Amino acid sequence: MTDVASVAALYRYPVKSMLGEELAAFECDGDGVIGDREFALLDAGDGRVATAKQPRHWRALLRCRSAGSGHSVRVTLPDGRTVPAGAAAGPLSELLGRQVVVSGARPDGAVVERPDPEDILVRGLDAEIDAPLLEIAQGTGGGRFVDHSPVHLISTATLDALGVDALRYRPNIVVATPPGTPAFVENDWLGRAVTIGGVRLVPTLPTPRCVVPTLEHGDIPRAPEALRGPAQRNRVAVEGFGVLPCAGCYARIEVPGTVRRGDTVRIEPEVTAH
């Protein structure tokens, strides 16, 4: 028997750390959702990837929205202006107070600053906190600016238990799980084959939660509980990263294809061979 669920919502984030778009369907290739995290801002001074994980510098990105794919990606700024992603470096540098460039190709060894999110909650968004460098996309090839593996999933069981809107956790796929499903069920999906329509995934890691879910998202206010909930209820050993607050899971793609809202999600009972 397999666990059966369905796709509740699909999201794509064309520019890393900006608000994205909800879609009725998207295409996946071996490196993830086509058009997802296709672009990112790079700090013109040190070349690091801009992410609201370091809110002291980059949290204003979550006041911007990106939509589209390829040459059609557009960025909507907080003042309502919409500009092509390729022409956004000037206004974004002005917004952020730091010189940035817009890149559509992830540099080799690309890194982000990731201060401890619980320290940020205690000391404040503008505190000068030690920010270790984290290499992104360690679980995927290609050139997209994903945090780790190609796809990020989270269940309605986890979201409902935490009382947090999906948009704060920035998943690609929200899985509608049956009534009675326990929170953090994604921990049990690791290594098991997951089929959605014609796409086959294998969850690889629990998703560590940074400070981003707690920040303002557009007009939506801050929500410290988006980190405190996982910190209190689901600290998990994440291979290579330590014991961290987690919600959701990352996954690699074994068979690419199309995922549609409403598709059946089947989770095999046995762990697959690696």
How does this model look, in words?
One of its GO terms (molecular function) is pyridoxal phosphate binding. This is MOSC domain protein. Residues 127-268 form the MOSC domain. It comes from Pseudonocardia autotrophica. The chain has one domain (3-271): M1 Pyruvate Kinase, Domain 3 (Beta Barrel), CATH 2.40.33. Helices cover 14% and strands 35% of the residues. The protein is built from 6 helices and 19 strands. The strands form 5 sheets. Strands 1-13-12-17-15-14-19 form a 7-stranded mixed β-barrel. Strands 4-3-18 form a 3-stranded antiparallel beta sheet, with no helix packed on it. The chain has a 3-stranded antiparallel beta sheet with strand order 6-7-8, with no helix packed on it. The longest helix is centred in the C-terminal third of the chain and has 9 residues, at 225-233.
Shape: globular
Q: Unreliable runs, pLDDT <50, ≥5 residues? A: none
Spatial sequence of strands, sheet with the most strands = 1-13-12-17-15-14-19
Question: Could you report the average pLDDT, rounded to the nearest whole number?
Answer: 96
Q: Mind telling me the CATH class? A: Mainly Beta
Q: Helicity, in percent? A: 10-25%
Total individual domains: 1
Find the structural class using helix and strand composition.
alpha+beta
Task: Give the CATH topology.
Answer: M1 Pyruvate Kinase, Domain 3
Query: Describe the biggest sheet?
Result: 7 strands, mixed, barrel
What is the terminal-to-terminal distance? Answer: 21 Å
Q: What is the CATH homology-level superfamily?
A: PK beta-barrel domain-like
H-E string: EEEEEHEEEHEEHEEHHEEEHEEEE
How many β-strand runs? Answer: 19
C-alpha Rg (nearest Å): 18 Å
The percentage of residues in β strands lies in 35-45%
* Secondary-structure arrangement, i.e. CATH architecture: Beta Barrel
Count of alpha/pi helices: 6
Oligomeric state of the chains in view: single chain
Protein name: MOSC domain protein
Organism: Pseudonocardia autotrophica (Amycolata autotrophica)
InterPro entries: MoCF_Sase_C, MOCOS_middle, Pyrv_Knase-like_insert_dom_sf
GO molecular function: catalytic activity; molybdenum ion binding; pyridoxal phosphate binding
